[in-house]
Amino acid sequence: MRTLCMISAMSLLLAVGCDDGRGDGTDAGGGIVLMDAGPGMTGTDAGPGMTGTDAGPGGGCPPAEAPAPTMSMVCAASTLTCLMGATDAASQQACIDADPMPDACNGCINQELIASCSSASGGGCDNEWGEVECCLQAECPSGDAACINSAIGTMAAPGPCAGAFNSFASCANSAAMAGACGISNFCFQM
Which of 126, 144, 180, 100 is CA-nearest to residue 18? Predict the structure, then answer.
């Protein structure tokens, strides 16, 4: 069973990384390589001594899939029941806020939704998520949650990664509405 949830920039707290996707171990070292984002985009090349090639079609970052959540059953079963009856993003958020562990529940649901929608075999928003990961890695290489929230920003004060995140959210929300991705019962106590 899948439930639709809208993705909100305010609830994103993820550690991100971006690699060159070669898989042959010939990167700039350390396992995380920021690719040249192309004209007009933020980003860096592969590093000193590396030639730094374009990251992919159109000068963007390579596609990426977010990891699935690692902690299961952090939301109450009643939260799932509430979400099943929610008709918009505000009522969905109210259901999560009423959970006994709202922060853990919100994190699990968002991580599952992002993983599901960024999957090439699921929601198909892996190109958009790759752009988010590379932007956040460029802005917040330490993966600090406060930095990530600042890089995404808010509607009133968008951060430097807001455009990439909004593109992903638009793709993910469309895919979720079409039933291509969403949340399962993974995060819920059954």
Answer: 126
Distance in angstroms (rounded) separating the CA atoms of residues 28 and 33: 6
SS3 call for 4? coil
User: What's the total number of domains in the chain?
Assistant: 2
Angstrom distance (rounded) from CA 43 to CA 131: 10
Domain span at 24 = 19-60
Q: Tell me: do 106 and 175 sit in the same domain.
A: yes
Residues 45, 68: one domain?
Answer: no
Q: Evaluate whether 43 touches 55 at the Cβ level (below 8 Å).
A: yes
- The model carries a pTM of 0.67
> pLDDT by residue (tens digit) across 93-146?
999 999 999 999 999 999 999 999 999 999 999 999 999 999 999 999 999 999
Same domain, 35 and 120: no
Q: CA 44, CA 12: separation in Å to the nearest integer? A: 24
